[in-house]
Amino acid sequence: IGGNESAFDAAINLSQTGARISIYTSKTGLKKEDADPSIRLSPYTQQRLQNAIQEGALIEMHVGYRAHKVTYQDHSYKIHFDNGHIVHSHTEPIIATGFDVTQNPLIEQLFQIRQSEIQLTELDESTKFPNVFLIGATVRHQNAILCYIYKFRARFAVLARIVSLREGLPEDTSLIQSYRQKNMFLDDYHCCDVNCTC
Predict the structure, then answer these.
(1) How far apart are CA 106 and CA 126, in angstroms?
(2) Beta strand segments in 103-143, E
(3) How many C-beta atoms surround the C-beta of residue 66 within 10 A?
(4) pLDDT per residue as tens digits for the range 143-196
(5) pLDDT band at 97 (very low <50, low <70, confident <90, very high)
(6) Alpha helices in the chain (DSSP H)
(7) How far is it, in rounded angstroms, from Cα 55 to Cα 18?
(8) How far apart are the first and last CA of the chain?
(9) How far apart, in whole angstroms, are the C-alpha atoms of residue 32 and residue 6?
(10) Confidence (pTM)
């Protein structure tokens, strides 16, 4: 269940065991034009999928399905979809829709959550507790979606600098400059428009 990087990665790997795979998803990034891998399936995953299909992988796509319940009865799983469709499976369905960290008890304690979104300051800091920061797939700023490690890792040095300055530690400006030159010091989100596919 799901139709982007997680779902296709699972499908490709399972197909190598000879399994027949059915992907059910509300939408997929498979044919999106956008270069941003949070929206479009990455070129690497598309290539792996194409190779798997050429090698005989049995992967079916069902787009326009949103699962709302999975039940188990008489050695069979039933996946219930919003459109009334029910799919039966003898194997346990795999939920590959990404991660919802808002259900994490630690996140619930340390961060304010409003309408399934974690409330953060402009510094990715908790609005409940100072010096508690969040890095990862759920952090967004304006139009920048920081959902993959190669995108949000550029925030590590920024937040380390903030913490060290608050602790009164001396700042090594040459180190900061080195991170900036390597595009590993993301403190300006205007540069986050993705305009290439590599």
Answers:
(1) 12
(2) 113-114, 117-118, 140-141
(3) 12
(4) 677 766 667 788 889 999 999 999 999 999 999 999 999 888 888 776 665 544
(5) confident
(6) 5-15, 43-54, 105-110, 149-152, 156-166, 173-181
(7) 11
(8) 27
(9) 16
(10) 0.61
Residue 86: predicted pLDDT: 96
Residue with the two structure tokens 């920048």: 144
SS3 144: strand
Contact present, 107 and 155 (Cβ < 8 Å)? no
Residue 76 in tokens: 């069979």
Please tell me the distance from the alpha carbon of residue 25 to that of residue 5, in angstroms, as a whole number.
Answer: 12
Which amino acid, residue 193?
D
Please count the other Cβ atoms lying within 10 Å of the Cβ belonging to residue 49: 19
Question: Could you tell me how far CA 41 lies from the centroid of its own chain?
Answer: 12
The dihedral of CA 45, 46, 49, 55: what is its sign? negative
Which position has the token pair 């609005």?
127
